[in-house]
Amino acid sequence: MKKGSYLYIVLLGLDRFAAAVFFCHSDITISALCWIVRTAPTDPVAARALVELKANLLQRWFLARCAAALEFIQRGHCAQARQTDLETAQAAIELLQ
User: Fold this and answer.
1) Residue 34's closest CA among 88, 72, 86, 71?
2) Residues in Cβ contact with 40 at an 8 Å cutoff, skipping those fewer than 6 apart
3) What dihedral do alpha carbons 97, 14, 56, 62 form, nearest 10°?
4) Could you say which DSSP state residue 49 is in?
5) What's the number of CA atoms in the CB half-sphere (13 Å) around residue 80?
6) For 40-97, where are the alpha helices, taking DSSP H only?
7) Taking a C-beta distance cutoff of 8 angstroms, is the pair 19, 28 a contact?
8) Cα→Cα distances 86→47, 65, 74, Å
């Protein structure tokens, strides 16, 4: 699926909606949340984000399992999702300034 296509944008919106419903964060994708949980033990940025996330044990468990599945399907998926979320945030900042 091409980044920026209509279908991509709709699926991204649904992903963020699910993150809002299940994790109370509408500004990040579930895949990026998976990156946080997956890399928190070794990455200080992810560790800080995990504290800010305030996820309970069930949420952390789900995100860890989801991360494993996503990485099995597409190696590097969670890190790419983080990068895409950073780019989206930067684009919003540029649009609004």
Assistant:
1) 71
2) 46, 47, 49, 50
3) -130
4) H
5) 7
6) 44-53, 57-73, 77-96
7) yes
8) 17, 23, 20
Residue type, 9: I
Q: pTM for the whole thing?
A: 0.90
Residues with Cβ within 8 Å of residue 50, at least 6 apart in sequence: 36, 37, 40
Output b/e per residue, 35-64; b: 16+ Cβ within 10 A.
Answer: bbbbbbeeeeebeebbeebebeeebbebbe
Question: Per residue of the chain (97 residues), what is the pLDDT tens digit?
Answer: 788 899 989 999 999 999 999 999 999 999 999 999 999 999 999 999 999 999 999 999 999 999 999 999 999 999 999 999 999 999 999 999 9
Q: Where are the domains of the chain?
A: 28-96
Count the Cβ atoms, other than its own, within 10 Å of residue 30: 22
